[in-house]
Design goal:
This protein has about 325 residues and is an alpha/beta fold. The protein has helices spanning about 1-40, 65-75, 95-110, 125-130, 155-160, 185-210, 215-220, 230-235, 245-255, 270-290, 290-300, and strands spanning about 50-60, 80-90, 90-95, 115-120, 135, 140-145, 225-230, 240, 260-265, 315. Among the domains are: about 50-145 and about 225-265, Alpha-Beta Complex (2-enoyl-CoA Hydratase, Chain A, domain 1), CATH 3.90.226.10; about 270-300. The strands form two sheets. Strands 1, 2, 4, 5, 6, 7, 8 and 9 form an eight-stranded mixed β-sheet that branches. Strands 3-10 form a two-stranded antiparallel sheet. Strand 1 (about 50-60), helix 2 and strand 2 (about 80-90) form a beta-alpha-beta unit. Helix 2 (about 65-75) runs parallel beside helix 3 (about 95-110) and helix 10 (about 270-290) runs antiparallel to helix 11 (about 290-300). It is flat and about 95 Å long.
């Protein structure tokens, strides 16, 4: 029996040592992968002070983003001879879209900029495209959705069923209105509509100016509908059907050497993002050790981090049934 006990203890000790070395090996591998990813700066790609064609991706919902704004400012000061603005976005915050528009217009003062609509450049995404000197879209790309909206939940019916009344003391009737916890007054709705219409007028003015549309031609495209690339070219919302190759060909007509390398511009990775890579490596290591619950806990530790849209939205989404 003593020998059996010693054998059991030896097996347990061996398992602990094996687990230790597994963790160490996975950790070393994770560090190596992260170091390789962060150290890929000297791979022969042209730097920002060397002549090149810059390629910038604008994808997803548009929100305020300091790193994106910094990238666009750096691009303005770079040696890029031309810019490809690759757009795949349904839009987002009006103010964030305005920031991109203004930044791209400044970039375009020094070199030609062409927007390439990939799957979608709708609403705020189309605002970004308008800043370019030329817009290229696929035949089936989605664009348009020219308009502005504000959405807020109305919980008044639910609160009544629960027997809850929300009371407030305001300096004036329109303060914090509409709120969603009390019926929207006609005055509050009118004030909100005024905000929407003012931003909408700004959006329409950009479309009229950048696409040289007015009268019936303008009215046809600013009613909030979306269009395919095939439709959009007939409505003068885009200039050409195609993709990146066609965009580079157009840059050549503007004096940009088409043999220049295309350099993809991405926001710089900061300390917090490196921490995120470390978290991902730790989660992967936990999974490799057969600890899925620990891996999920690591991934969800910072799940609340994120950004928010500003109040008024220029965004397209399918109608909800």
């Amino acid at each position: 029996m003593a020998l059996d006990t010693e054998a059991i203890l030896e097996r347990r000790s061996l398992r602990r040592r094996l687990a230790f070395w597994r963790v160490g090996a996975v950790a070393i591998l994770g560090v190596a992968v992260v170091a390789f990813a962060l150290g890929r700066g000297g791979d022969g790609k042209p730097g920002p002070r060397e002549p090149h064609i810059a390629k910038v991706e604008l994808s997803g919902v548009i929100m305020g983003d300091d790193k994106r704004d910094k990238l666009l400012k750096d691009l303005e000061k770079s040696e890029a001879r031309g810019v490809l603005l690759m757009i795949n976005s349904p839009g987002g915050g009006v103010t964030a879209s305005e920031d991109i528009y203004d930044a791209v217009r400044k970039i375009a003062e020094k070199r030609p900029v062409v927007a390439v609509v990939e799957t979608m450049a709708a609403s705020g995404g189309y605002i970004a495209a308008l800043a370019a000197d030329r817009i290229v879209a696929r035949q089936t790309s989605i664009t348009g959705s020219i308009g502005v909206l504000a959405q807020y939940p109305n919980f008044t019916g639910l609160l009544e069923k629960l027997g809850v009344q929300v009371e407030s003391v305001k300096s004036s009737p329109l303060k914090a209105a509409p709120s969603g916890v009390e019926p929207t007054s006609p005055e509050a709705r009118k004030a909100l509509e005024a905000l929407i219409l003012d931003s909408y007028d700004w959006f329409k003015a950009i479309v009229a100016d950048r696409r040289k549309l007015d009268g019936t031609a303008l009215a046809t495209v600013v009613d909030g509908r979306v269009f395919t690339g095939r439709q959009a070219i007939g409505l003068k919302l885009v200039d050409e059907l195609g993709g990146e190759a066609e965009a580079i060909a157009w840059l050549k007509t503007q004096g940009v050497d088409s043999d220049l390398p295309v350099r993809e511009w991405k926001p710089k990775t900061d300390g917090l993002e490196r921490l995120g890579l470390a978290r991902a490596s730790a989660a992967w290591a936990a999974e490799a050790l057969g600890l899925p619950s620990v891996a999920n806990a690591i991934r969800n530790a910072y799940a609340g981090e994120g950004r928010v849209l500003d109040g008024l939205l220029a965004i397209w989404q399918p109608a909800q049934e």
